[in-house]
């Protein structure tokens, strides 16, 4: 279940109310920072831009690949743990504008998480520590710690326990490599 706060609107669809929701100057600033970060090859610089100008909580050694698109209106609602990889062209949203309402929700991505390319993460989602999200996944519900998920709609492919058992059986990455 996604944890979002709902804000009803009257009259035109909620996107017409956008600048009542978030200041125009903030959106312009965020747009510039996000576009700079999307194209820079310097991982440390991306994290600095996100922490300094977008007020995001980003852990050490976290890597945002080329073209990652963060929520342009509410990036401060996104937090990412340490040593996490966010794959190429992933989109992370903290808002959604609908016809009769808009919704806001925190996105919490744990430590040592691997998110594959072209993934979309919806508002109000928590991805637990050590989780793996397959490329092209629509993350529309929470991901348990250590789980391997994928698809559209997203489903759990392996739980943490099942994934650990598979790794232990592997002749190259067996038990001695896990510990």
Could you characterize what this model shows?
- Keywords: Acyltransferase, Transferase.
- This is Acyltransferase.
- One of its GO terms (molecular function) is acyltransferase activity.
- InterPro entries: Hexapep, Trans_hexapeptide_repeat, Trimer_LpxA-like_sf.
- By secondary structure, the protein is α/β, with parallel strands linked by helices.
- The protein has a single domain (5-178), classed as Hexapeptide repeat proteins (UDP N-Acetylglucosamine Acyltransferase, domain 1, 3 Solenoid).
- Helices cover 25% and strands 25% of the residues.
- The strands form four sheets. A six-stranded mixed beta sheet has the order 3-6-11-14-16-17. The protein has a four-stranded parallel beta sheet with strand order 2-5-10-13, covered by helices on one side.
- α2 packs antiparallel against α3 (43-53).
- The radius of gyration is 17 Å and the shape is globular.
- The protein starts with a strand and ends with a helix.
- The mean pLDDT is 94.
Gross geometry: globular
What name does CATH use for the topology? UDP N-Acetylglucosamine Acyltransferase, domain 1
Question: What gyration radius follows from the Cα positions, in whole Å?
Answer: 17 Å
Strand fraction: 15-25%
Percent helix, as a range, is: 25-40%
GO molecular function, one term: acyltransferase activity
Protein name: Acyltransferase
Keywords: Acyltransferase, Transferase
Organism: Robertmurraya beringensis
């Amino acid at each position: 279940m996604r944890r979002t706060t709902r804000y009803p609107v009257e009259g035109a669809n909620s996107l017409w109310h956008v600048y009542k929701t978030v200041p125009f100057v903030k959106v312009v600033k965020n747009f510039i920072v996000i576009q700079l970060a999307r194209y820079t090859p310097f991982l440390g610089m991306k994290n600095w831009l996100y922490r300094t100008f977008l007020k995001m909580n980003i852990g050490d050694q976290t890597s945002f690949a080329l073209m990652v698109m963060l929520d342009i209106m509410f990036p401060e609602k996104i937090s990412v743990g340490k040593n996490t990889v966010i794959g190429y062209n992933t989109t992370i949203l903290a808002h959604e504008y609908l016809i009769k309402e808009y919704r806001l929700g925190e996105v919490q991505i744990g430590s040592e998480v691997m998110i594959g390319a072209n993934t979309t993460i919806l508002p109000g989602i928590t991805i637990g520590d050590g989780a793996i999200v397959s490329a092209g996944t629509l993350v529309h519900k929470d991901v348990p710690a250590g789980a391997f998920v994928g698809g559209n709609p997203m489903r759990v492919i392996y739980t943490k326990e099942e994934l650990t058992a598979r790794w232990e059986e592997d002749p190259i990455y067996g038990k001695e490599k896990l510990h």
